[in-house]
Amino acid sequence: MCVTLTVTHSLSHTPYLALFEKESQKRIDDLNRVFWPMISCNRWLGLRLEMCGNALISTAALAAVLARLTGNVDHHYAALLGIYIYTHAHAHAHI
Predict the structure, then answer these.
(1) The Cα angle at residue 78 between residues 73 and 83, in degrees rounded to 5
(2) For residue 39, how many other CB atoms are within 10 A of its CB?
């Protein structure tokens, strides 16, 4: 930033200032053009991971409730399973 300000200050009294500003804006636009697809891909991947995590949590909760109703599992283990799945599903969704 210091270099740009120094260059701009030294170019302010020359006819090359408009050319410098135009080239600078073009380069900034070229660099920013890459970020829109990257952000879109990251959001799409995050949405997919969140949906997979929610499906996993729902399946584990349903399995815990069914196992508890049949008397095969203690309620402490069912709660531990739910907390474990919830923690890991949301931890991987924010990578």
Answers:
(1) 160
(2) 10
Q: How far, rounded to the nearest angstrom, does the alpha carbon of residue 47 sit from its chain's CA centroid?
A: 9
Q: How far is residue 48's CA from residue 51's CA, in Å, rounded to a whole number?
A: 5
From residue 91, alpha-carbon distances to 38, 41, 77, 86 in Å are: 21, 19, 21, 8
The residue assigned the tokens 């799945």 is: 85
CA distance 28 to 22: 10
CA dihedral 89, 92, 93, 95 (to 10 degrees): 170
pLDDT confidence tier of residue 25, bands split at 50, 70 and 90: very high
Tokens standing for residue 62: 């349903």
**C-alpha–C-alpha distance, residues 41 and 80, integer Å:** 34
Higher pLDDT, 24 or 36: 24
Helices (H), 1-95: 2-11, 17-32, 35-70, 75-93
pTM above 0.90, yes or no: no
